[in-house]
């Protein structure tokens, strides 16, 4: 359902309470006549030192997804965007599908969910990368890599290299310096993957990825850009915009 300000599209967004990047990045990409309506998944600011901590963080997020979706559905959005990336691929490359089906059982078959598990491969195909090696940049611990590798291979790609920034807490992900992201992108690009994909929705990567495409000469897919782009295109919004890379500017 549309309204006076969201006369083209209303999007419901669910993202963790510790995330300070999804909301401003989505709003920066928002076309005229599209509105974003955010519900928070309440979690604590986990200290992540090992695989058990990381697993606990992901489970904590998953436990709060349904309540956040229930809240945002009261504003009657056209679809719900899952503004958290690892949740859509954790334990199973089809984890996002399982979340969608769980929510449909609870809230009705008409519920539409956009998540990174669908958005990332769609974005890669849109920029002309249908197969081959890709590099990953994440804020996670190395224990996340088996989950990400399984997802990448399920999508038909080869995980050539992965850099994990080992951010100490969920909130601290958003504090990652621009210089760190630039340095690690250059290091990944030295192996000449077909594309670089960034996971971690609390990593402020949208505009940096767009700049990096210019000096690396290859596609750099930021997860928030891919997910929001997929939400727009899935709802018939074809507006193009500069500043967030070739995906939003040309595809």
TrEMBL record:
InterPro entries in alphabetical order: Iso_Racemase_Enz_sf, MaiA/AMDase
Gene3D superfamilies registered for this protein in UniProt: 3.40.50.12500
Protein name stated in the entry: Asp/Glu/hydantoin racemase
Source species: Pseudofrankia inefficax (strain DSM 45817 / CECT 9037 / DDB 130130 / EuI1c) (Frankia inefficax)
